[in-house]
Amino acid sequence: GAGVSQTPSNKVTEKGKYVELRCDPISGHTALYWYRQSLGQGPEFLIYFQGTGAADDSGLPNDRFFAVRPEGSVSTLKIQRTERGDSAVYLCASSLKPGTVDNEQFFGPGTRLTVL
Amino acid sequence: AQSVAQPEDQVNVAEGNPLTVKCTYSVSGNPYLFWYVQYPNRGLQFLLKYITGDNLVKGSYGFEAEFNKSQTSFHLKKPSALVSDSALYFCAVRDILTGGGNKLTFGTGTQLKVEL
Asked: Which of A41, A45, A100 is the best residue to mutate to test the B interface, defined by the most B CB atoms within 10 Å of its own CB?
């Protein structure tokens, strides 16, 4: 079956602009996660959705970052007034059974964001 | 807080030789431990996980990992390395008791290079 998909695969923008990154999870997966991977680092947690609501947004770095999942499926990560330090690969993951021992997260290919 | 350390930025091994990629973790409660692999321009792929039970966990592509509670380690191993195993490997932990919730905390990654 189809895995997690993310669009666009690459996004180049200018400092100060607004960007939206989209994630389409595996069908039926109720949980959705956003991570950010900076160069030479491991992925860092940003936010976790259970259904339509953000169950944990403790990883969002500041109020320029916001994410939504209005219908409990597709999610959009929104970044306002982008800064060069926002340049990274943004990874999305989904899982079927959050809160259980068998909660394997499946990752998408990521969106590489470059802020000039 | 939960954390993961991967002490080696890079591991070099000859094809056919055994390989080990090291990982140590820190959690307040009992850990769920994971290994993921990342190939260039691709998302993270799940290799294996430890939840409970047998300390030796077998996963995809001939990889296995040994959970050692006293040493708080979860080293990734393979008896005979292949050139195609060359990739970036991430260890991750989820703390199941202290409200770490569903988020994964990743190490900084270890680049494995298998040479002929």
From this structure: A45
